[in-house]
Amino acid sequence: MWTRAATAAELRALTRVVWPIVVTQLSQMGMGVADTMMAGRVSAADLAGVTLGGNLYWPSMLLLSGIVMSITPSVSQLHGGGRTGESGEVVRQALWIALVGGAVTTWLLHNAEPVYHLIGVDPVAIPIAAAYLAALSTGLLPLLGYMALRNLCDGLSWTLPAMCIGLSGLVLKVPLNALFIYGNESLGIAPMGGVGCGWATALVMFYQLAAMTTVVAFSRVRMARLFARFSWPDRREILRLVRLGVPIGITMFVEVGFFSVVGLSIGALGVVQVASHQIAFNVAGIAFMVPLALGVGATIRVGTNIGAGRIDGARLAGAVAMGVVGAWSLVSAALILSLRQGVSELFSSDPAVIQVASALMVLGALFQFFDGAQVGAIGTLRGYKDTRAPAAIGVVAYWCIGLPVGAALCYGMGSLPELGVSGYWWGVVIGLGIAATLLLIRLYRLSADSDRIAAFSTR
User: The pTM is what?
Assistant: First the structure.
């Protein structure tokens, strides 16, 4: 058993790492909230277009960023083992992967309009969604570069730079949104509606890359020796990063892709249902930023302990992170339930949208517990470099169970009632619940198995 002093010390260490990550994640989420609120004030069709564009962009981006995120556990274990100077080569090879994969994905997203016609999305929203997606994907390459450099800083347990850059990016995002959404006659910029959100975000991504490059080049992160030399692609290191990072990308892809398919499927129900879904999803997403940050913090703390050979310390780090996740889930669920009506009114003035969004938030409060548990467990497992099992669990829980159940409840099947958009949200609750249960079992078993931990650390 761990002593009270050891637990308190770990909680302090986790807090130092996590609180800037929470602010960073909330800043990033704030950009999405700004898009939702400002596009929603233009029209329900503009809000639906922004939502549908994001439903294709984010799964694609996250599939790529998984490889980039493999930097964090790799660097944290090197740092814990006193080999920080080797981190720069890891990042250089990850950047080659990001460059090639990002260029291909950008081209695909610029030509994605037929997808919306294929799945039967409301025709009113398709032109907005396609144009928004093309604008947004212009910033994909700088985003991946920024994430690689941010993950380097995170792996070194220095999370403040990303917080400062995230906050300044949010400050920049809001006036850029206003400029492109509503236009500015004196600057010769015509109103773009929801499409303007995409251009504003792309410009912020270029800014964040420039800012993070400056931090890495002129701060204590120089110890990683990222800019000490140029490296051509190294087949061995790239394959190692791919083996570690592709499962991370798949894990995020299957979860976010699950939510995106739900959002795209809801698109066939009409703009009111899409707008309501997006509002409720944004509110649940804001609350989710805290456990998401705790998951990243768990990756860093567990990885650092494993690199230093402290297996019991790694287990304590995971346990503390999961305890904080559980406490936050209780708080966030209570807040969503009590504030759902007023929050819905902040996002939309349409009574129909407000009514449906408020009802969906009840289910959003329920899945806070499951969503927090699964992301906390994934982050902790990632610190051990266990990335393949979470990917398999996600495929089963979300795609084999959650999505079919959600569709059956949405449209009614057999004796099941037709619940409409709420049916898909019940599918989300069920999928997250199954994933959380299986991931917690996996974490409990792995954290007590020193032989398997040693095997994973060589990846």
Answer: 0.79
